[in-house]
Amino acid sequence: MQRRFFPVSLHASSRTASFTACAALLSFAAPLSAQVSAQVSTQVPAQASTPTLAPVTVTGNPLGSSTAVAPADQLSGTGLVLRSQSTLGETLSGTPGVSSTYFGPNASRPVIRGQDGDRIRILANSGASIDASGVSYDHAVALDPIAVERIEVLRGPGALLYGGSAVGGVVNVIDNRIPREAVTGITGRADIGLSTASRERGGAALVETGSDRYALHVDMFDRRTSDVAVPALLACTKPGSPSLARRICNSASYVRGGAVGGSLLFANGYIGASATTYRNDYGTVAEDEVTIGMKSNRYALEGEWRNPVALVKSVKAQFSRSDYSHTEFEGATPGTQFRNSGGDYRVEVKHAKLGPLEGVVGLQGERTRFAADGTEAFAPYSRTRSDALFVYEEWAAGWGKSTFGARAESVRVESLGNPLVARFVPAARSFAPLSAAAGLAVNVAPQWQATANLAFSERAPKDYELFADGPHVATGAYEVGNAALGKERSVNLDVGVQWKRDHDTFHLSAFESRFANFVSLQASGTRVVGADTLPEFTYTPVRARFRGFEASGNVRLLQSPATLDLELRADSVRAINLDTNEPLPRIAPWRAGATLAWARGDWGVRVGFDHFATQSRVPTGDLPTSAYTLWTTSVTWKMQRDNWNALWYARIDNAANTLAYSATSILTQTAPGKSPLPGRNLKVGVQLNF
User: Which of 588, 582, 629 has the alpha carbon at shortest distance from 609?
Assistant: First the structure.
């Protein structure tokens, strides 16, 4: 099979122009900020001597309390700067319970507790992020970590608030493109980063201004990379590239975009809107001459009215519209084109305390229309409509907190056929998923807390799971949908314990998810497509179990005059097809890591490693992956001035230049040896806030 592509443009002249503009912005920002504002952007962490509030993870915690019953993490400030990679999946990979699908350095979704694809809900400011990344591993997420303020991860069943597609977890990418608070004068941020492995040149800038009546936001970002360096000689047939090089063939990329937004502020709330554009031209790495040209536009409207009437603390509503498309090119010839457009709405009403209870009642809906045209359109045109009613309640007391809630959905999935492909015919299915969950956090001792979460979740099958019928290059197979699929049902249990004393912390959680009818691609024969014979796989319901744990902790080794902390982490997940007693594919092996973090004044140094075990628990016919250890180190320096501050940083990823292959990447099976993890990479940069 041949795929058509568009060559990624990485011209030196445009790269130079981009960074000249970013440098000019940096030189302009400091004196400007000294004249108009003494406010420091909240994205940058304060000095060690400045007291800070504990971060509140809002995803899965709609009441904004400081205690989250469900396991959750967030990346922001220096932590996000030192973890940021070119994709969302790689940025989050290594956080507790999270790995990535790693389809090379340009396309990677998060994998949470062994589950990926449309069991992981990716949100933009708690609203839908509509793209085609859940359809195929080689499709990138239409969000870029370089342009965000905070990323929140909710592990475990998030279906209660965000739908059946969140049964594995939720990733919420948060920015301030719709300002929610007043801005005094002019504030902003500028980032510049350079790296060696991919020859990355990346920059982002945002400016905000306003008064007590309005707030405005503008941002832009641009990042260009070349083929990524690896510690192995790899073959390459792409014209103009060396036939043998220590780089991943066809892994260059060019990402750019920006947004404008604004809000009107009033005494009891705000209303705002934003428009965002995202463009990404990148190599797919599975095939040496295939690239993807992607574009996405998103428009959002959001507002909140606090204390509108008695017994109602707030009413919050958000609406968005997205238009996504990408074309796969070979040479200059366009091939298969994917389009996904639609919108979503979300309305939350937070009620005042009713006795010991306070909570949220909400409505959520989504409309999408998907189309694929070309020789590799493995799924028909389709239309999906979903609406849901949910309720979430909390009861807080001196002993701790309990949470419970329920969600009822109505989902309709339609195949609209395809006028050019006779095998796709019109069809429709309707589903009524129901979900319920309960959680408990108990203060068992002054420094100890125990948590437990139990959820029953139902997920409606996706359009491609029902109606696919065609060759899918990303999986190296001919995929066949199953129009008779029912709702995917699961029971999910999570228990945990955490301890905190001053700077010393410890957290351990264990989980188990059992699926009565986990929708899995199962071998069903072979299929001849032109001159090729492909293995055939059919979406089939099987009984499945996911089981594992996550552990993390911090030990303060030195307190004064410098601090020295030892950060520890480990996790493991095992997933099995209970019908065959075989492991499920693409499950991360157990891993453990540690980091020494030293800080004194404005300086910080981190040195750490993560060890990934051998993954030999694979289905029959799949290849195991070898163990490996990745070392990282970083140095940071915070420069504080009256009206601005800067974070200078240098970090080295894979410092030992270890050759490693990801157990969670489909490429490890379909193109063995072709796409290892990136080799040693030095990244230096600065983040300026004014």
Answer: 629
Note the pLDDT tens digit of each residue in 442-454. Answer: 999 999 999 999 9
H or E, element range at 668: helix 667-670
Q: Which residue has the tokens 């049902």?
A: 489
Residue 675 exposure: Cα atoms within 13 Å on the Cβ side: 28
Nearest to 155 by CA among 202, 207, 111, 209: 111
| Separation between Cα atoms, residue 484 and residue 486, nearest integer Å | 6
Range of the domain at 479: 12-689
Whole-angstrom distance, CA of residue 361 vs CA of residue 378: 39
Contact between residue 276 and residue 259 where contact means Cβ atoms under 8 Å apart: yes
Q: How far apart are CA 665 and CA 660, in angstroms?
A: 12
- pLDDT value for 51: 35
Q: Return all residues near 162 (Cβ < 8 A) that are at least 6 apart.
A: 121, 123, 170, 364
Domain count, the chain: 1
Tokens 């006795």 -> residue: 355
| 620 in any annotated domain | yes
Alpha helices by DSSP H, 293-435:
none
| Distance in angstroms (rounded) separating the CA atoms of residues 666 and 238 | 22
End-to-end CA distance of the chain: 53
Is residue 226 included in any domain, yes or no?
Answer: yes
Quick check: is 1 in a domain?
A: no
Q: What is the mean pLDDT of the chain?
A: 89
Instruction: Please tell me the distance from the alpha carbon of residue 504 to that of residue 54, in angstroms, as a whole number.
Output: 15
Per the CB < 8 A criterion, the answer to whether 512 and 490 are in contact is no
What is residue 157's predicted lDDT score, i.e. its pLDDT? Answer: 64
Round to whole Å and give the CA distance between 127 and 347: 11
In whole angstroms, give the CA distance from residue 203 to residue 522: 44
Q: Within a domain: residue 2?
A: no
Q: Residue 420: which CATH number?
A: 2.40.170.20
Q: What is the mean pLDDT of residues 301-306?
A: 97
Report the Cα 349 to chain-centroid distance in Å: 27
3-state helix, strand, coil in the chain (%, to 5): 10, 55, 35
How far, in Å, CA of 265 to CA of 517, rounded? 48
Tokens of 372: 């694929």
Helix (H, G, I), strand (E, B) or coil at 172: strand
| Burial (Cβ within 10 Å: 0-12, 13-18, ≥19) of residue 53 | exposed
- Output the six-digit token pair for 457: 């979740």
Question: Given a cut of 90, is residue 324 above it in pLDDT?
Answer: yes
Can you give the three-state secondary structure of 406-471, one letter per residue? Answer: EEEEEEEEEEEECCCCCCCCEEEEEECCEEEEEEEEEEEECCEEEEEEEEEEEECCCHHHHHCEEE
Q: Of 324, 254, 240, 248, which is closest to residue 282 (Cα–Cα)?
A: 254
